[in-house]
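Sample intake sheet
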Amino acid sequence: MKLISACLLGLLCAWSGDDRYRNNRAVELSRLEILIPVCPEQMGGLPTPRISQEIQNGTGVDVLNQKCRVINKNGQDVTVEFIKGAEETVKIVRYLNIKEFIAKSRSPSCGCGQIYDGTFSGKLIDGDGVTTALLRKNGIKIIPVEDL
């Protein structure tokens, strides 16, 4: 059993409200093993669709250490919702004794390895999103969807 970013299975939870992040390899894997879909942004209380968001001046680790914030494109601070969603995701992991998370790349919550730099310009930096950072901190193996 693995946790997976829900948008990778085609659930309509992406910021845009569509299934643009559906991944055929992830869908095929869901036919072979149990995948528990999560959308930390929704679980943190954000609507779908929602204004795009990025971590400003840091990574998910920095957000968890209160060194930076998550801001949406309109300038609203959504850090509290991102942290709440990450914490709710960890509750699921603990309750179900899950050890692995299949993550969506570049997301400010589920991103692994690289995330957007906070300028809303499409530039990437090395680092994880908030949820991925908290899952790593809790010993969960992170699997980039590109590695499926």
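Comment: The mean pLDDT is 97. Strands lie at 2-5, 35-38, 53-56, 69-72, 100-103, 114-116, 124-126, 141-144.
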